[in-house]
Amino acid sequence: MKVAGPFVAMVMAECAQVGLMIVSKEAMSQGMSSFIFVLYSNSLACLVLLPASLIYHRSGRPPLTWSIISGFFVLGLFGFLAQAFGYTGINLSSPTLATAILNLVPGFTFILAVTFRLEKLDWKATGSIAKVVGTVVSMAGAFTMTFYKGTHLVHSPPGFTNRLLSQQSDWVLAGSFLGMDCVVTSAFVIIQALILKKYPAELILVFFYCFFVAILSIIVCLVAERDITAWTLKPSIRWTAVLYSGIFGSAFQVGIGTWCLCRTGPVFVSMFKPIGIVIAAAVGVICFGDTLYLGRWDFHLVNFCQSSIPCHSCTF
Known about the structure:
- Residues 20-144 form the EamA domain.
- Belongs to the drug/metabolite transporter (DMT) superfamily. Plant drug/metabolite exporter (P-DME) (TC 2.A.7.4) family.
- With 316 residues, this protein is mainly α.
- It has one domain.
- It contains 11 helices and 3 strands.
- It has a 3-stranded antiparallel sheet.
- Strand 2 (291-295) and strand 3 (297-298) form a beta hairpin.
- Helix 4 packs antiparallel against helix 11, helix 5 packs across helix 6 and helix 5 (104-115) runs parallel beside helix 7 (171-198).
- The protein is globular, with a radius of gyration of 20 Å.
């Protein structure tokens, strides 16, 4: 279990993240603000994590110092930026593109881990060479999925109207936001690893992370979202997305990732990101009728056409 546990846990976390991307995309396509989505989901996660963290760490809790709390705040700041960049990129594109760009996270994390001496780089060791090659391949794959469109691998079913992912997308702008998300996420993982060395109480760390993300979200929302209707949870997909994000996204996924990070290190946690692209591709093709290319995905914009017959000019 010590060996298999982190593997199983990270696969479950990636499944939860793909689901989070899908429900958040649907909620934002129904007009929900990404900042309000971050606020509600992290606030709900705080309500779940507060009693859970106190029960799980009811004995042997390390003392909280101002230095540790300051580290929690910095972690929350990076987490807020990562969510802001990530949801903006998803809103401009799709969950499938987001999971493709996340292939950059292992590379950036490995570079930062070596820089901060959390990972040793030995050019004579096979493991180190494999990590370097994997870093280059993952980055090349992310850029390929963003900018290159090859031949069809899987076509969408005839007459299938993709309501969820049928928006015209600015792939370059979306890719830029998602790329910034990857950089910030990699830094987030490194900061998390450094804090866990001083304060190895995983759920308490995740609680304070969500708490500070919620506080920062309130400040931004009060400035950016002055329309009172933007704060409502109607239609129901908004409430569903917030509920899923708070429990399975912020609480479960981040909690599992932190637990694995404490036991395996940042590179191990980040290297599971490419699994998300397989999960997202399967869900997109089976459930949403995506057309899969050798390269990036295409989404038919039949909802925006005046003609009832889809044509090749309506793909991006």
